[in-house]
Amino acid sequence: MSDKQHANRPLADFIVHNLDSAVVFPKPYRGGKTAVSWQTEELQHVSIASKDGRIVWVGPAAELGQNVTIEGSARFYNGEGLLAVPGFVDSHTHLVYAGDRSDEFEMRVQGRSYLDILAAGGGILRTTNAVRGLSEEELFVKSAQRLEQVMKTGVTTVEIKTGYGLDLENEMKMLRVIDQLKAAYPVRIVATFMGAHAVPADRRADPDAFVDEICNVWIPEVARSGLAEFNDVFTENKAFSVAQSRRILEAGLKHGLKAKIHADEVNVLGGVDLAAELGAVSADHLLMTGDEGIKKLAGSGVIPTVLPGTSTYLMESHHAAARKMIDAGLPLAIASDHNPGSCQFLGANIIQSLAMLQLKMSASEALIAGTLHAAHALALGNEIGAIEVGRRTDLALFALNSFRQIGYQVGQNSLFELIIDGTPVFGEQ
Ligand code: NIG
Ligand code: FE
Fold first, then answer.
1. Among the bound ligands, the one closest to the CA of 92
2. Quick one: 127 and 269 in the same domain?
3. Given 23, 89, 172, 274, which residue has the most CB atoms within 10 angstroms?
4. Is the predicted pLDDT of residue 397 greater than 90, yes or no?
5. Which atom of ligand 1 is nearest to the CA of 198?
6. 24 CA distance to ligand 1 middle (Å)
7. Residue 256 CA to ligand 2 centre (angstroms)
8. What total number of domains does the chain contain?
9. Which residues contact 365 (CB under 8 A, 6 or more apart)?
10. Are residues 103 and 73 in the same domain?
11. Contact call for residues 359 and 323 (beta carbons, < 8 A)
């Protein structure tokens, strides 16, 4: 080998060596109006080299030495018998909460609707009471237990929303809990402020005054704290109108908070149009979104995010029109929406299964939607979400022969190791 070639070889300080297989996406979606591809490729006998937490080389294990300069102090992880996929990205969760709503679950099984329970003071408002009653430390402990379960399903990045404080003090408390989780766990956490999750009982007489307060007082304070990156709103009957949602999202954008929206979950009010108009990073739920909404999303750059766990848990008569969205060329993402009321499915692998069973997605589509496209839904689409040179070394290692077994083995979990930023999390070997 010439000196020049040698000089161009990347340095590596961490290597996942001798993997049985690794899944790559040959033509990853690059954001905006670029092309969407659902193609996956399962490479055999692979090594992945990393430097400073970023992938520098992926290729045949036998060719590692001739392509990579391995630092003397480099760590090796033995990948024999393992499959590597990109770490899952759960781009929509309400993971920080307290309390129990198992009675509402039974009520819904017997036929009461989700919005009726909310209007009667249950639902989100009930969780709000539970959250307000806990100290920051207590809320941290409850949320940390859940986060550990999420990580065990192969998730390396998780978004977490506020929205069970519904007053400034308790919304800030939730943001601080999210921040403590960030400090305590290696998983990448993205914080979303969702003060506009529901109108609390004592503000029902004048919801517009509540919206004013969110826009003029809460959002500036949240932005000053630096504790949130996104701003989300529940655009729905009995929650926030499109006009109110517009004010809330615009106020966030003015203060540097990127926009997300809960749109078309129960009724089509115009949340999708608003997302396209404001350049929201993602529009989520979309259970009721039809051809018109899909047309609006096409080419908008908004990442449509569907939540098959929620439509299953709410026993809806249908699920989001994922197939139509894929056929229309949209960079569809999937996420868990884990929360205490409308979805108790937790983590990534069960959502992979539900995407296949309920949304009729292929295993390749489910994998790309739950990794790369979900990363785009967090504005991290060029940083994480795929096994590709230049991206963070975030991997989920499974004791499986093929990624097609992840969704197939419903409710089972063959995760062996999680690697985040080039560091094994569980230390299995
Ligand atoms: O995404 N739709 C609004 N928010 C959550 C449910 C929250 C709850 O019921 O506690 C959702 O489904
Ligand atoms: Fe949600």
1. 2
2. yes
3. 89
4. yes
5. 3
6. 33
7. 21
8. 2
9. 38, 326, 332, 355
10. no
11. yes
